[in-house]
Amino acid sequence: MFNSLTDRLTSTFRNLKGKGRLSEADIDATAREIRRALLDADVAVPAVRDFISHVKERALGAEVSEALNPGQQVVKIVNSELERILGGETRRLTLAKTPPTVIMLVGLQGAGKTTLAGKLSKHLKDQGHTPMLVAADLQRPNAVRQLEINGERAGVPVFAPHPGVSSEAEAPTGDPVQVSRDGIAEATRKQHDIVIVDTAGRTGVDAELMQQASDIRAAINPDEVLFVIDAMIGQDAVATAQAFNEGVGFTGVVLSKLDGDARGGAALSVVNVTGKPIMFASTGEQLNDFEVFHPDRMASRILD
Ligand code: GDP
Prior knowledge:
- It is an enzyme of class 3 (hydrolase).
- This is Signal recognition particle protein.
- Residues 277-290 form the SRP54-type proteins GTP-binding domain.
- It comes from Citricoccus muralis.
- The chain contains eleven helices and eight strands.
- Helices cover 48% and strands 13% of the residues.
- Helix 7 (176-189) runs parallel beside helix 8.
- The two termini are 12 Å apart.
- An eight-stranded mixed beta sheet has the order 3-2-4-1-5-6-7-8, with helices on both faces.
- The chain is α/β, with parallel strands linked by helices.
């Protein structure tokens, strides 16, 4: 992830090294190179525009520093703008005043929701919470079973819509809205402090998927709706994020498959385009391949 962007930025900065002071022409040339590097990394055009205008404004107005040469000053500006475009401050989960806190997961099929559900539940359990998972993805035949397996690995109970699975509630129907409601009722009864509801995805954004997710959201009024996006899908990430933001609405983003060789565009566009923070990152298929997303650390990683 970010390898090619990192290389490109490094070589851009190398060209500035040793300059006594930066002329406007130097700054323009640098901005052009950064723009090309970001576009090649699949960063969305509005995010690139925003980024470049901030960098230029700050570079032109930068005070002469005794400690830093002009090249270092530009690196510092780019670092802080990367941090800003990645969301600024680390955003933590909002917990309900009266438990359980309800977290709903949405996204396309294959985005990594079910995998993330297991990882997030393990992370929360490690922090001393008592999470429960709810299998409301009734679209994909295997999704319920897969969530049960992930729950078992995480040591977290799963509420699933068929008899015989860790549920004392009445056998739920095949209606995802009802399953979500029943799951939350069960979690409340059993005093779990967090419920994670896994919902169905489709291969492409469609009206039916949006309606279903939107109905579930209206029925369960979650404290957080996390949109899980595959970082590997490049430019499509932005359009998908916008569709979900308008169709269901979400409170935070989870970037999955950050271990792949994605060019990083999704990470660098999604906050700018949706106005929603990236909260977690999924970095592999194993339960522990999971990170709380820290914009400052990610910015430093890009400029490594
Ligand atoms: P869902 O349809 O959104 O629930 O997606 P799944 O959780 O079933 O994930 C789809 C595929 O992506 C599975 O084969 C997962 O093992 C894989 N996967 C999920 N998250 C990651 C990740 O962070 N890195 C990698 N390399 N694979 C992942």
